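Weekly sync, protein design subgroup
Attendees: M.S., D.O., the rotation student, P.L. (late)

Item 1: inverse folding check
M.S. brought a backbone from last month's batch and wanted to see whether the design step gives back something sensible before we order anything. D.O. pointed out we never logged the input encoding, so this time it goes straight into the notes. C-alpha cells as presented (492 positions):
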C-alpha cells in the first residue's frame, strides 16, 4: 500500500510544485486574447468553461489507454508504477502542457503548422505524415476494440447484434456525425459526464484494491512479484524474457507519455478563453491520467491470488478487456460489471471520435481549407471510408505501428518544445531532457523490433545509452552556444 500511496503523492506534488515551474518557462500571458476570442465561428472555436475543458481533455487523451497499457505493463512488475509516475510528471505532463501552450500561442493550430513555424517545411511535412498516420491508427483501434467487445457480449449471443461488422458501422456512423458537428453539440454536452464517470470508477477500484487485493506490493518485497529471493534486477527481462528496456516504455504510453495527446491539444486550445487555463487543463489532465494508470497497474500486479501467472493466463484468454471485466466485477459486483462495459466500449469511442476530429483539423490547417459544412463533409467521408477498410487489417499489426508512431510523435513534440524554449531563452531542460530519454527509447525500440531493423534485443540498452549520451552532448553544445544571448520574447 505504501508504494501506491507514494506514487499518488508524487503525482500530486508534481502538479503542485513542478508544474508552476514549467509554466514560468512558457511565457503564459493571462491578458492575451486567445484564439477562441479572435476566431470564434461556432464550430471549433467555441468558448468552454475551464472545468468542462479539463474533463473533455482528460477523456480525449484517456480512452482505454491508461487502463489497457498499465495492465499489460503489470507483466513487468512494480517497476511499471515507477515508470508511470516519473514518466508522467517529468515527461508526459510536460509534453501535454507544451502541446497546449504552443497551440494556443499559434492561433490554435495543429502540430504540423507549429513545426513549420519553429523549424522548417521539411519538419512540417514529417509531422504531418506521422500525425495523420497516428490519428488513423488511433481511430481504427478505437473502432475495432469496442466493436469486438460489444459483438461478444453474452447478452447479444445468437442475435444480429453479435455481428462485428454491425458494430463497426454503428461506431463509424457516430464518428461521422460527431466529426462534422460543432463541438458544442455533442462533445461539450456529454464528454464531461463520461470524464467524471472515469474518475468515479477509478476511485472505487482503487479503494477496493487497497482494502481487498491479495498482493499489494510493499517496499521490502518490491520484486517478490517475480522471485522469492528478490534477485530480479530493475531492468531485467520478466520471467518470459520480455525485455523491460524498451518494451515497458512502449507498452505504457498513456499514463506516462503519449504522442497522441499532442494531437488533441488544438481541439481544446480553440475553446479556452484565457491562457492561464492551459496548465490545469493540460498538465492537470495528464496528472489525472497518471492516477488512472497507477490504479490499473496496481490492479494487474495485486488483484490476482496467483500473481503474474494468473494475470498472464487471463491476458492470453481475453486480453486486457477481460482483465478489466474480471477486476471490476470481482471487486465492485454488478456495478463494476456495468462500469467495465462502459470503460472498454464507451471510453475508446470518445477517443476515436476526437482522433478523427483532430485529423480533420490537421488537414484543414495544412491545406488552408475553409471550414464550411460542405468541406467538412468532403473531408469526413474519405477519412472514415479509409478507416473502414483499415478495420479489415490485422489488429495486432495496427497496434504495433501505433505504439511506435505514438512514441516517435511524443519525441518530436518534446524537441519542438525544446526549440520553443530555446527561442524564448528560458530553461529548456524541462523539455530537452525528456526529449533525450524518449529519443533513446524510440531508437532502442525501432532498432530491435520486428517492424524495424530487427537487431538482437541485447543491443537495445547499448543503443539507448549511446543515443542518450550523444543527445546530451549535443544539447550541451547548443546550450553553450545560446548562453548569454538575449531572449527574444521571454517577458511575454
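Designed sequence read out in the meeting:
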Amino acid at each position: 500500500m505504501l508504494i501506491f500511496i507514494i506514487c499518488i503523492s508524487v503525482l500530486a506534488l508534481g502538479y503542485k510544485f513542478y508544474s508552476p515551474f514549467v509554466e514560468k518557462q512558457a511565457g503564459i500571458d493571462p491578458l492575451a486574447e486567445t484564439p477562441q476570442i479572435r476566431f470564434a465561428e461556432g464550430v471549433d472555436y467555441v468558448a468552454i468553461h475551464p472545468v468542462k475543458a479539463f474533463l473533455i481533455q482528460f477523456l480525449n487523451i484517456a480512452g482505454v489507454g491508461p487502463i489497457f497499457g498499465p495492465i499489460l505493463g503489470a507483466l513487468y512488475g512494480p517497476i511499471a508504477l515507477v515508470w508511470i509516475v516519473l514518466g508522467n510528471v517529468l515527461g508526459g505532463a510536460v509534453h501535454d502542457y507544451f502541446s497546449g501552450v504552443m497551440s494556443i500561442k499559434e492561433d490554435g493550430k495543429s502540430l504540423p503548422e507549429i513545426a513549420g513555424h519553429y523549424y522548417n517545411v521539411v519538419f512540417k511535412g514529417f509531422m504531418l505524415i506521422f500525425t495523420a498516420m497516428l490519428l488513423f491508427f488511433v481511430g481504427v483501434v478505437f473502432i475495432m476494440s469496442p466493436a469486438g467487445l460489444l459483438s461478444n457480449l453474452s447478452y447479444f449471443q445468437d442475435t444480429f447484434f453479435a455481428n462485428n461488422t454491425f458494430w463497426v458501422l454503428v461506431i463509424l456512423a457516430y464518428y461521422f456525425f460527431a466529426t462534422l458537428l460543432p463541438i458544442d453539440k455533442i462533445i461539450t454536452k456529454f464528454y464531461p459526464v463520461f470524464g467524471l464517470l472515469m474518475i468515479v470508477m477509478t476511485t472505487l477500484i482503487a479503494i477496493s484494491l487497497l482494502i481487498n487485493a491479495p498482493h499489494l506490493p510493499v517496499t521490502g518485497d518490491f520484486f517478490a512479484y517475480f522471485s522469492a529471493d528478490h534477485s530480479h534486477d530493475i531492468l531485467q527481462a520478466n520471467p518470459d524474457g520480455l525485455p523491460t528496456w524498451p518494451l515497458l516504455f512502449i507498452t505504457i504510453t498513456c499514463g506516462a507519455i503519449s504522442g497522441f495527446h499532442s494531437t488533441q491539444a488544438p481541439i481544446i486550445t480553440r475553446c479556452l478563453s484565457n491562457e492561464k487555463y492551459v496548465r490545469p487543463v493540460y498538465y492537470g489532465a495528464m496528472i489525472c491520467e497518471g492516477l488512472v494508470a497507477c490504479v490499473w497497474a496496481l490492479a494487474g500486479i495485486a488483484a490476482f491470488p496467483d500473481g503474474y501467472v494468473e494475470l498472464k493466463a487471463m491476458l492470453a484468454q481475453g486480453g486486457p478487456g477481460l482483465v478489466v471485466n474480471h477486476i471490476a466485477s470481482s471487486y465492485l459486483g454488478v456495478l463494476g460489471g456495468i462500469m467495465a462495459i462502459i470503460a472498454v466500449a464507451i471510453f475508446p469511442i470518445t477517443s476515436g471520435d476526437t482522433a478523427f476530429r483532430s485529423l480533420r483539423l490537421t488537414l484543414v490547417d495544412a491545406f488552408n481549407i475553409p471550414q464550411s459544412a460542405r468541406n467538412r463533409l468532403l473531408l469526413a467521408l474519405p477519412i472514415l471510408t479509409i478507416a473502414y477498410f483499415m478495420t479489415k487489417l490485422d489488429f495486432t499489426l495496427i497496434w504495433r505501428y501505433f505504439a511506435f508512431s505514438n512514441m516517435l510523435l511524443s519525441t518530436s513534440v518534446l524537441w519542438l518544445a525544446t526549440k520553443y524554449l530555446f527561442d524564448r531563452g528560458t530553461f529548456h531542460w524541462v523539455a530537452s531532457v525528456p526529449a533525450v530519454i524518449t529519443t533513446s527509447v524510440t531508437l532502442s525500440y525501432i532498432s530491435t523490433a520486428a517492424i524495424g531493423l530487427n537487431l538482437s534485443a541485447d543491443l537495445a540498452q547499448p543503443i539507448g545509452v549511446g543515443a542518450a549520451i550523444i543527445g546530451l552532448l549535443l544539447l550541451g553544445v547548443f546550450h553553450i552556444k545560446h548562453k548569454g544571448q538575449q531572449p527574444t520574447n521571454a517577458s511575454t
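Discussion: Residues 226-232 have pLDDT under 50 and may be disordered. The radius of gyration is 22 Å.
Action: P.L. to compare against the previous round before Friday.
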